[in-house]
Amino acid sequence: MARTPDGPPPPPAVQKLRLRYAKRGRLRFSSHRDFQRAFERAIRRAEVPIAFSAGFNPHPKVSYAGAAPTGTASEAEYLEIAVVERCDPDLVRKALDESLPPGLDVLEVVEARTGSLPDRIDASVWQVELPTMSPEQAGTAVAAFLARASVPVERVLKDGRRQLDARVPVVALTVDTSAASGPSGTPYAILRMVVRHETPAVRPDDVLTGLRQVADLVPPASEARVTRLAQGLLADDGQVADPLAPDREPVTSLVTEPAEGAGTLHP
User: In sequence order, what are the residues at sequence separation of 6 or more whose Cβ sits closer than 8 angstroms to the Cβ of residue 84?
Assistant: First the structure.
Protein backbone atom coordinates (compact mmCIF):
# COMPACT_ATOMS: atom_id res chain seq x y z
CA MET A 1 0.00 0.00 0.00
CA ALA A 2 1.40 3.39 -0.96
CA ARG A 3 2.45 5.68 1.87
CA THR A 4 1.05 9.20 2.10
CA PRO A 5 2.62 12.14 3.95
CA ASP A 6 1.26 12.95 7.41
CA GLY A 7 -0.73 16.12 7.90
CA PRO A 8 -2.93 18.17 5.61
CA PRO A 9 -1.95 18.89 1.98
CA PRO A 10 -0.25 22.22 1.28
CA PRO A 11 -2.51 25.20 0.51
CA PRO A 12 -3.33 25.53 -3.21
CA ALA A 13 -1.77 28.23 -5.36
CA VAL A 14 -4.13 31.13 -6.09
CA GLN A 15 -1.84 33.31 -8.24
CA LYS A 16 1.19 32.99 -10.50
CA LEU A 17 3.77 35.73 -10.87
CA ARG A 18 6.37 36.09 -13.62
CA LEU A 19 9.71 37.75 -12.91
CA ARG A 20 12.47 39.26 -15.01
CA TYR A 21 15.80 39.50 -13.25
CA ALA A 22 19.38 40.46 -14.10
CA LYS A 23 22.83 39.02 -13.37
CA ARG A 24 25.36 41.82 -13.24
CA GLY A 25 28.95 42.53 -12.26
CA ARG A 26 30.73 39.78 -10.34
CA LEU A 27 27.44 37.91 -9.87
CA ARG A 28 27.62 36.89 -13.54
CA PHE A 29 29.99 34.17 -12.33
CA SER A 30 27.26 32.63 -10.15
CA SER A 31 25.90 29.36 -11.52
CA HIS A 32 22.23 28.63 -12.04
CA ARG A 33 22.32 26.44 -8.90
CA ASP A 34 23.85 29.33 -6.95
CA PHE A 35 21.02 31.58 -8.09
CA GLN A 36 18.38 29.00 -7.16
CA ARG A 37 19.72 28.82 -3.61
CA ALA A 38 19.95 32.61 -3.31
CA PHE A 39 16.43 33.06 -4.71
CA GLU A 40 14.87 30.54 -2.32
CA ARG A 41 16.57 32.30 0.61
CA ALA A 42 15.22 35.62 -0.70
CA ILE A 43 11.69 34.17 -0.83
CA ARG A 44 11.97 33.25 2.87
CA ARG A 45 13.46 36.61 3.88
CA ALA A 46 10.83 38.57 1.93
CA GLU A 47 8.05 36.38 3.40
CA VAL A 48 6.55 35.75 0.00
CA PRO A 49 3.63 33.31 0.53
CA ILE A 50 5.11 30.78 -1.87
CA ALA A 51 3.20 27.61 -2.74
CA PHE A 52 4.83 24.24 -2.13
CA SER A 53 4.53 20.92 -3.87
CA ALA A 54 2.91 17.97 -2.12
CA GLY A 55 4.70 14.79 -1.08
CA PHE A 56 7.38 13.81 1.41
CA ASN A 57 9.85 16.44 0.16
CA PRO A 58 7.88 19.63 -0.53
CA HIS A 59 9.71 22.25 -2.54
CA PRO A 60 8.75 25.81 -3.49
CA LYS A 61 6.89 26.15 -6.77
CA VAL A 62 9.43 28.04 -8.84
CA SER A 63 9.78 27.40 -12.59
CA TYR A 64 12.84 28.68 -14.46
CA ALA A 65 12.75 29.53 -18.17
CA GLY A 66 16.31 28.64 -19.14
CA ALA A 67 19.45 30.19 -17.69
CA ALA A 68 22.42 32.13 -19.00
CA PRO A 69 25.74 30.24 -18.90
CA THR A 70 27.97 30.79 -15.87
CA GLY A 71 30.20 33.81 -16.46
CA THR A 72 27.63 35.50 -18.68
CA ALA A 73 25.83 38.66 -17.58
CA SER A 74 22.15 39.06 -18.39
CA GLU A 75 19.44 41.69 -18.37
CA ALA A 76 16.71 39.22 -19.30
CA GLU A 77 16.38 36.09 -17.14
CA TYR A 78 12.89 34.83 -16.38
CA LEU A 79 11.11 32.65 -13.86
CA GLU A 80 7.60 32.01 -12.53
CA ILE A 81 6.42 31.48 -8.97
CA ALA A 82 3.11 30.31 -7.52
CA VAL A 83 1.77 31.85 -4.30
CA VAL A 84 -0.99 30.85 -1.88
CA GLU A 85 -2.22 34.42 -1.27
CA ARG A 86 -2.85 37.14 -3.83
CA CYS A 87 0.04 39.61 -3.87
CA ASP A 88 0.76 43.01 -5.35
CA PRO A 89 3.42 42.26 -8.01
CA ASP A 90 5.31 45.50 -7.35
CA LEU A 91 5.54 44.76 -3.62
CA VAL A 92 6.89 41.31 -4.46
CA ARG A 93 9.49 42.85 -6.78
CA LYS A 94 10.71 45.32 -4.16
CA ALA A 95 10.81 42.73 -1.37
CA LEU A 96 12.69 40.13 -3.40
CA ASP A 97 15.10 42.67 -4.88
CA GLU A 98 16.03 43.93 -1.40
CA SER A 99 16.49 40.34 -0.21
CA LEU A 100 18.93 39.36 -2.99
CA PRO A 101 22.60 40.41 -3.13
CA PRO A 102 23.51 43.38 -5.34
CA GLY A 103 24.09 42.08 -8.85
CA LEU A 104 21.12 39.73 -8.72
CA ASP A 105 18.42 42.30 -9.41
CA VAL A 106 14.68 41.72 -9.79
CA LEU A 107 13.65 44.13 -12.55
CA GLU A 108 9.97 43.38 -13.05
CA VAL A 109 7.16 41.24 -11.66
CA VAL A 110 3.80 40.79 -13.38
CA GLU A 111 0.83 38.56 -12.77
CA ALA A 112 0.71 35.57 -15.12
CA ARG A 113 -2.55 35.75 -17.02
CA THR A 114 -2.55 33.29 -19.88
CA GLY A 115 -0.25 30.94 -21.72
CA SER A 116 3.06 29.40 -20.75
CA LEU A 117 6.22 31.44 -20.15
CA PRO A 118 8.53 28.93 -21.93
CA ASP A 119 6.21 29.01 -24.97
CA ARG A 120 7.00 32.73 -25.30
CA ILE A 121 10.75 32.29 -25.49
CA ASP A 122 12.59 30.77 -28.45
CA ALA A 123 15.51 33.16 -29.09
CA SER A 124 18.02 35.39 -27.32
CA VAL A 125 19.71 38.67 -28.17
CA TRP A 126 23.35 38.75 -27.08
CA GLN A 127 26.01 41.44 -26.87
CA VAL A 128 29.66 40.36 -26.99
CA GLU A 129 32.37 42.92 -26.23
CA LEU A 130 35.82 42.10 -27.65
CA PRO A 131 38.24 44.56 -25.99
CA THR A 132 41.31 43.37 -27.93
CA MET A 133 39.75 43.47 -31.39
CA SER A 134 39.05 46.35 -33.75
CA PRO A 135 35.63 46.70 -35.42
CA GLU A 136 37.29 46.15 -38.80
CA GLN A 137 38.80 42.83 -37.74
CA ALA A 138 35.49 41.69 -36.27
CA GLY A 139 33.66 42.73 -39.44
CA THR A 140 35.92 40.54 -41.56
CA ALA A 141 35.32 37.54 -39.30
CA VAL A 142 31.56 38.11 -39.20
CA ALA A 143 31.34 38.29 -43.00
CA ALA A 144 33.24 35.01 -43.32
CA PHE A 145 31.00 33.35 -40.74
CA LEU A 146 27.74 34.50 -42.34
CA ALA A 147 28.93 33.32 -45.76
CA ARG A 148 29.00 29.72 -44.52
CA ALA A 149 25.97 27.46 -44.58
CA SER A 150 27.36 25.44 -41.69
CA VAL A 151 30.08 26.00 -39.07
CA PRO A 152 30.65 22.82 -36.99
CA VAL A 153 32.16 23.33 -33.53
CA GLU A 154 32.76 20.98 -30.61
CA ARG A 155 31.76 21.41 -26.98
CA VAL A 156 31.85 19.12 -23.96
CA LEU A 157 28.31 18.42 -22.72
CA LYS A 158 27.04 16.23 -19.88
CA ASP A 159 26.98 13.21 -22.18
CA GLY A 160 30.47 13.85 -23.55
CA ARG A 161 32.00 15.79 -26.41
CA ARG A 162 29.44 16.79 -29.04
CA GLN A 163 29.59 18.55 -32.39
CA LEU A 164 27.23 21.49 -32.85
CA ASP A 165 26.46 23.68 -35.83
CA ALA A 166 27.19 27.23 -34.66
CA ARG A 167 25.88 28.81 -37.86
CA VAL A 168 22.32 27.52 -38.30
CA PRO A 169 20.76 29.00 -35.11
CA VAL A 170 22.32 32.45 -35.72
CA VAL A 171 19.53 34.61 -37.14
CA ALA A 172 21.56 37.85 -37.13
CA LEU A 173 25.16 38.78 -36.40
CA THR A 174 26.46 42.34 -36.72
CA VAL A 175 29.27 44.56 -35.51
CA ASP A 176 28.06 47.58 -33.55
CA THR A 177 29.04 50.63 -35.58
CA SER A 178 29.08 52.82 -32.46
CA ALA A 179 32.11 50.80 -31.23
CA ALA A 180 33.07 51.53 -27.63
CA SER A 181 36.56 52.73 -26.71
CA GLY A 182 39.00 51.05 -24.36
CA PRO A 183 41.29 52.70 -21.78
CA SER A 184 43.68 53.82 -24.54
CA GLY A 185 40.84 55.48 -26.48
CA THR A 186 41.06 52.94 -29.31
CA PRO A 187 37.66 51.65 -30.51
CA TYR A 188 37.00 47.97 -29.96
CA ALA A 189 34.46 45.60 -31.43
CA ILE A 190 31.04 44.87 -30.04
CA LEU A 191 29.06 42.05 -31.62
CA ARG A 192 25.27 41.82 -31.54
CA MET A 193 23.70 38.47 -32.30
CA VAL A 194 20.25 36.94 -32.32
CA VAL A 195 20.42 33.20 -31.68
CA ARG A 196 17.51 30.81 -31.92
CA HIS A 197 17.16 28.39 -28.99
CA GLU A 198 17.85 24.78 -29.92
CA THR A 199 18.73 21.56 -28.13
CA PRO A 200 21.57 21.43 -27.32
CA ALA A 201 21.75 25.21 -27.09
CA VAL A 202 24.28 27.12 -29.19
CA ARG A 203 25.86 29.76 -26.93
CA PRO A 204 27.80 32.93 -27.76
CA ASP A 205 31.09 31.17 -26.99
CA ASP A 206 30.20 28.56 -29.64
CA VAL A 207 29.70 31.39 -32.15
CA LEU A 208 33.08 32.85 -31.13
CA THR A 209 34.66 29.45 -31.67
CA GLY A 210 33.06 29.35 -35.13
CA LEU A 211 34.36 32.84 -35.93
CA ARG A 212 37.82 31.79 -34.89
CA GLN A 213 37.64 28.70 -37.12
CA VAL A 214 36.50 30.50 -40.25
CA ALA A 215 38.60 33.67 -39.90
CA ASP A 216 41.26 33.02 -37.23
CA LEU A 217 40.77 36.55 -35.94
CA VAL A 218 38.51 36.43 -32.90
CA PRO A 219 40.21 36.17 -29.46
CA PRO A 220 39.48 33.30 -27.05
CA ALA A 221 36.01 33.31 -25.51
CA SER A 222 37.61 33.95 -22.09
CA GLU A 223 38.48 37.49 -23.25
CA ALA A 224 34.92 38.30 -24.34
CA ARG A 225 32.40 40.08 -22.13
CA VAL A 226 29.03 38.54 -22.90
CA THR A 227 25.61 39.93 -21.90
CA ARG A 228 22.17 38.60 -22.74
CA LEU A 229 20.11 41.67 -23.61
CA ALA A 230 16.73 40.06 -24.31
CA GLN A 231 14.80 36.82 -24.69
CA GLY A 232 11.48 36.17 -26.38
CA LEU A 233 9.63 34.90 -29.42
CA LEU A 234 11.43 35.49 -32.70
CA ALA A 235 9.32 37.47 -35.21
CA ASP A 236 9.59 37.31 -38.99
CA ASP A 237 11.49 40.61 -39.02
CA GLY A 238 14.19 39.22 -36.71
CA GLN A 239 12.98 41.13 -33.66
CA VAL A 240 12.54 39.36 -30.32
CA ALA A 241 9.22 40.02 -28.54
CA ASP A 242 9.11 40.78 -24.81
CA PRO A 243 7.71 37.60 -23.16
CA LEU A 244 6.00 39.60 -20.38
CA ALA A 245 4.19 41.97 -22.74
CA PRO A 246 0.95 39.88 -22.95
CA ASP A 247 0.75 39.90 -19.14
CA ARG A 248 0.84 43.72 -19.07
CA GLU A 249 -2.07 44.19 -21.47
CA PRO A 250 -5.18 45.60 -19.75
CA VAL A 251 -7.68 42.97 -18.67
CA THR A 252 -10.94 44.28 -17.19
CA SER A 253 -11.45 41.25 -14.98
CA LEU A 254 -7.97 41.41 -13.46
CA VAL A 255 -7.86 42.26 -9.75
CA THR A 256 -5.31 45.09 -9.57
CA GLU A 257 -5.51 45.70 -5.83
CA PRO A 258 -4.32 43.12 -3.26
CA ALA A 259 -7.20 40.90 -2.20
CA GLU A 260 -8.57 41.28 1.31
CA GLY A 261 -6.49 39.24 3.71
CA ALA A 262 -3.49 39.06 1.40
CA GLY A 263 -0.19 38.70 3.21
CA THR A 264 2.13 41.66 3.74
CA LEU A 265 5.60 41.31 2.29
CA HIS A 266 8.55 42.25 4.47
CA PRO A 267 12.01 42.73 2.86
Answer: 10, 11, 12, 13, 14, 49, 50, 51
